[in-house]
Each structure stands twice: as structure tokens, then as C-alpha cells.
Amino acid sequence: MKIVIFGLGSIGLRHAGLLKEYGGHEIVAFRTLGSKNAINLKEIFSWDELDQFKPELAVICNPTSLHIKTAIECVKRGVFLFLEKPIGSSEEGLDELVELVQAKKLTTYVAYILRFHPAIAELKEKIRKEKLLHCRMVCSSFLPDWRKGSDYKKSYSASKKEGGGVLLDLSHELDMADYLFNGVKTIEGKLGKASSLTVDSEDYADLILSTSACPVSIHLNYFSHQTKRSIFIDTESNVFEVDLISGDRDALYKRQWDYFFDNIRNPKMMNNLIEAAPLFKQMIHFKEKAL
């Protein structure tokens, strides 16, 4: 398969490395700058070059603010999408993108890697027959530790304009609420900037979600010296606790790619763009109201 990767930051390099391991794919990187990439991928620098390459799949992991614009150009060319979370930094262009995907019946997937954590699969099965009362999720970390060797204040995470801020950057927790509890109905709470670690993006969020199964409280932050990612669920007869820090990250990404390739001809695969768009819109509406 011919694959083009947009963005060769840490996540783009991880995807590229895994795709090379599969073998049998012709992979190029779409770059805006001419610096040589770390894994010797062939590079292209224009849409004309992309048209000559004729990719079948686009892996979109460039800055969040460019996701939707990039995806639209790819879908116009009939290219399948593997879109790193979040879908974008705003709703601008999203309806056009959704309409194009539906009209062309293209396969799309929005990548939320924690759906492939074995602890989440086990938890989803365990709570299936439980009477759920409440769920609490926590994700805390220290932004300067995220990308060693680079200036964290120049990362998209620190910039509101680039789509940074904990709500979208750490939106795995909202996606897990949607996945585990059969849909998020409403999002309420508070966003804010408590530290000096970001330029202008929010560095914490305290959220209350209503879902089809139970209320969910979520705390997210960029400023804690305690790295934590956990889920607690109270039911009428049990309590379940899951630690999501542990585990082999490469194995999770491999499971995700296995799932994607197994469903490459299925436009209705799990968390396709059409399925993922409503939750993304809820997040954007909440963010616009809260900030």
C-alpha cells in the first residue's frame, strides 16, 4: 500500500517505524521543511508531488490545527484516513470533511490508542453486566517531561492557536468515557491555566460528563510532578480500578494498526470519522463556552 505520513514529530516517527516493520508498504513523508528525517523516509514537499505518488492512505499527525485542512485535501483525492487524535483544533471545515467522506464512502479512523489497552478491554467486559454508579478518571503529567530534548513551550501543547491545551491534548479520557459508557451526552466543568508551563493554552480541566451509563468526573492537568492515568468505577456490588500508565506502548500501537488493516475496507470501522465527530463537536462547544 502507498502511504503518506503528514508530520514526523514523536508520534509520526512512531507510526512510520511501525509501518516499516509491517513491510510491503511504500511510505513517504509530506514535509514543509527540508531537514532530513531520522528514519530515512523519502520526502515530498507539495501536493503536486503527492498527486504523482498517488497514496492510498494518509496518516495525519501534523499539528492539530492542520488536521482537518490536510484531511480535506486527502479525501478530495480519494485517500483513506488514519487521523491522530484530536480531529482538529476547531470545527472549521469539519462538516465539509464529513460530507466528503460520506459521499466518497472512504475508510477513516480517528486514533485513540487507549482503546487498545488490554486493561480497557478487560474493564469493558467486567462492567458489562454491572449496575454502574459513578466513574472517576485522572490524567496528570508534567509537560516539560513530554518531549525530552525539545523546548516544550514551542510545542503545540503549549499554544492555544496550535490546538494545545489539556481538553483536546488529553482527550483520551473523554473518548474512553464515550467508549466504555455508550456515549457522552453532556460535558460540564471548568478549564483554566494555573501554572506558567504553557504559553496560553489551558493546563487543567475538571469535568463532569453525563453518559448513557453513569456520571463521569475527569481531572486533567499538564503541571503535576506525579504522572498518573487511572480509572475508578463504583458499581452497586464492586469497585474497579485501572492503571493505564503501565504496559508496552509499542504493543498498543501495533494492536491499533492491526485493527486498522483488518478493517481497511470497512468505512464503518470503530471510531471512524463519522462516529467520532459528535464527541469532538461537544468538546469544542464546551471549550468555547468555558474559556
The CATH class assignment of the largest domain is Alpha Beta
CATH architecture of the largest domain: 2-Layer Sandwich
Mean pLDDT: 95
Number of helical segments with 4 or more residues: 9
Largest sheet features: 6 strands, parallel
Structural notes for this entry:
This protein has helices at residues 10-22, 47-53, 67-76, 94-104, 118-126, 166-169, 172-180, 249-262, 273-290; strands at 2-6, 26-30, 42-44, 57-60, 80-84, 108-111, 132-142, 184-192, 204-211, 215-221, 223-235, 239-243. The protein folds into 2 domains: 2-113, NAD(P)-binding Rossmann-like Domain (Rossmann fold, 3-Layer(aba) Sandwich), CATH 3.40.50.720; 118-246, Dihydrodipicolinate Reductase, domain 2 (2-Layer Sandwich). The chain has 9 helices and 12 strands. Strand 11 (223-235) and strand 12 (239-243) form a beta hairpin. Helix 1 (10-22) crosses helix 8. The mean pLDDT is 95.
Task: Give a quick rundown of the structure.
It is built from nine helices and twelve strands.
Provide the descriptors you would attach to this structure in a database record.
single chain; 291 residues; alpha/beta; Rossmann fold; Dihydrodipicolinate Reductase, domain 2; 2 domains; 6-stranded parallel β-sheet; 9 helices
Q: How would you summarize the topology of this molecule?
A:
Layout: E1 2-6, H1 10-22, E2 26-30, E3 42-44, H2 47-53, E4 57-60, H3 67-76, E5 80-84, H4 94-104, E6 108-111, H5 118-126, E7 132-142, H6 166-169, H7 172-180, E8 184-192, E9 204-211, E10 215-221, E11 223-235, E12 239-243, H8 249-262, H9 273-290
Parallel strand pairs: 1-2, 1-4, 2-3, 4-5, 5-6, 7-10
Antiparallel strand pairs: 7-11, 8-9, 9-10, 11-12
Helix pairs in contact: 1-8, 3-4
